[in-house]
Amino acid sequence: MQLHYGVDELKAIDWMAILPIILPFMAVGFILILIALIDLYRNRKTRKNIFIWTLLILLCNIIGPVLYFVIGRKDGRTY
Amino acid sequence: MLTISNLKKQYSNKNILNGVELKIEKGEILGFVGANGAGKTTTLNSITGILNPDEGTIMINGLTASDDLEYKKQFFFIPDTVNVFKNVSGYDWISFMLKLYDQEQTEKLSYFVEQFSMEKAIHKPMGTYSYGMLHKMALIAAFTIEPPIIIMDEPLNGLDPRAVMTFKDCVKNYVKEGGTVFFSTHLLDIAEKICSTVAILKDGKIILHEDIQKVMGEENTLESIFMERQRE
Amino acid sequence: MNSLGVLMKKEYSQVLRDFKVIWLPLVFVFLGATQPIMTYYLPVILEVLGGTQGISIDPTMIEQTGGQVLAATLGSQFDQLGIMIIVIAMMGLIQSDKSSGMLAFILTRPVTVSSYIGGKLVFNYLLVSVSVGIGYFISLLYIHFLFTSVELSQLIGALLCYLVWVLFSVSFITMLSAVLNSQALIAIVGIITLLICRMLVGLHPMLDAVNPAGMSQHAMNLLISGSIGANLSINLLVTIIWVLLTVIITHYWILQKKFHES
Asked: Could you tell me the CATH superfamily of domain B2-231?
């Protein structure tokens, strides 16, 4: 196995072989962000701090959408 | 059927209840009145088990709070704010309540839904309900379940005049069939038309528990009696 | 009387509305996939970050077995970000019912405190377990594809050990959720305690035996070496005692109505 990589080899990396592996992985993170953003948009009238939540969801990988689901959607469940 | 003796409760060194003594007979419709802060809600919360009193015993049909499930099946409690899920329909909520009390849905349910004219609203999420509608839902649940005693904290708040009439009729029918009603209220003029007896709570003690006709005599209103007693 | 079943149904509809049933498994799928992909492409990633010079890579890094990578999924993904996510997902379990008055409402109904706690705990533990299980399976899929495969008995044994540690985490947060009143405080205390438990593993054998996080270490050992650690049974027993203790405290706290007076 070759253990020395140069920049030329990097270009030679078979991206087509990597893609099927990485793509589903990235899709999962993307779906989480998407669900959070759609929910935020659909409830934009009742949510607070929409701008901050949008940034948080987009920038904080995984934790951002999760925090939104747990804390940001709170007003959807009062009694 | 419901006996409270020597009920005491302190909150941050302030005595809220100072030995409440109350004996409710089967078939009574007891209006529980008192000034703000007299301890009405604390009394009701002690009966229903939301609070643990510092001292005293509460018995319903010979059962105490330590009998847990059997005790809790003796009553249906309607608090002043009815907690419900916003996204649950009134119908689903009532089904949930009925299941907790081991009951099936019967035509009784649709009868009371009609009585309180909630046919349309019952399938909508409870988040869209007004305060009065939430109370109507809780009343429908209570009358459908028909426990030995219905305990209510300010049930008349938020009810429209028609619902108050329905409430009165339902209470009368329920008592005729062997039920007992115990509710707190501030609306004395309505209370005097519904209640068979009245109890006044002052400074954490029951200062009067009497048949309402006897108390009012010929000319008095409940309001004047209440004001008189408060001054003493 | 089947109030446990009724309460679990209520819990289910609540979880459904929270989207928890969707995002919790997704998060663990993400975490599960991260470790094998990172390990496999680490040389490439280092290359990109390292500039033109080219770096020699420690050969052992690439020659990891499937078991080692799966162990790393548990140790570096699930036990770090995963635990934090579980705490955040579970912190409102009882706290939100307390603050909304729902707890008081439910407890004036013919419902025992045990079935209330039981409904919460059983349902949410199932949800977390299934999420962790799915993430674990996805990790395995990637490992099978990119590394060597792992023996089935080790695989299942390790998952079961790990789920005991997860059980402790869930019951511990449930207890915090009953005792404390602020979500932020529950999250901070929960995350710090559980991460400290995890970090203390391996310091001293005596400590390991009474540390619930030891179960996670046992799971990793099983995957790496293929053999069961010496004090697994003691650790298992102690962890179950810890779980019972947290449940008893939760039960006592709610029964004494401590929630109402603070």
From this structure: P-loop containing nucleotide triphosphate hydrolases (3.40.50.300)
Number of neighbours of residue B108 by Cβ within 10 angstroms = 14
Measured CA to CA, the distance from residue C245 to residue C172 in angstroms comes to: 9
CB atoms within 10 A of CB C49: 8
In the prediction, which pLDDT does A78 show?
39
Asked whether the beta carbons of B97 and B89 are under 8 A apart, the reply is: no
B contact test, residue of C106, C108, C253, C256 with most B CBs within 10 A = C108
SS3 state of residue B5: strand
Q: What is the pLDDT of residues C183-204, one digit of tens each?
A: 999 999 999 999 999 999 988 8
User: Taking a C-beta distance cutoff of 8 angstroms, is the pair B3, B22 a contact?
Assistant: yes
- The domain spans of chain B are 2-231
Of B198, C20, B115, nearest to A65 (Cα)? Answer: C20
C262 CB within 8 Å of a chain B CB: no
- In this structure, of B144-153, B181-190, C119-128, C155-164, the range with the lowest mean pLDDT score is B181-190
Q: What is the ipTM for the molecules in this complex?
A: 0.82
Q: Collect all residues of chain C within an 8 Å Cβ-Cβ radius of residue B50.
A: 104, 107-108, 257, 260
Contacts of C22 in chain A (CB under 8 A): 35
Would the CB atoms of B81 and C256 count as touching at under 8 Å? no
User: Can you name the residues that pair with A7 across neighbouring β-strands?
Assistant: none
Residues in A closer than 8 angstroms to B133, CB to CB, are none
Of B34-43, B124-133, C149-158, highest mean pLDDT? C149-158
Of A5, A7, A70, the CB nearest to C89: A70
* Domain boundaries, given as residue ranges, for chain C: 3-261
**Most A CBs within 10 Å: which of B80, B86, B126, as the mutation test of the A interface?**
B86
Q: Is C17 on the interface with B (CB under 8 A)?
A: yes
Residue B153 pairs in a beta bridge with: B184
- State the pLDDT at residue A79: 33
Decide if A77 and B86 are in contact by the 8 Å CB cutoff: yes
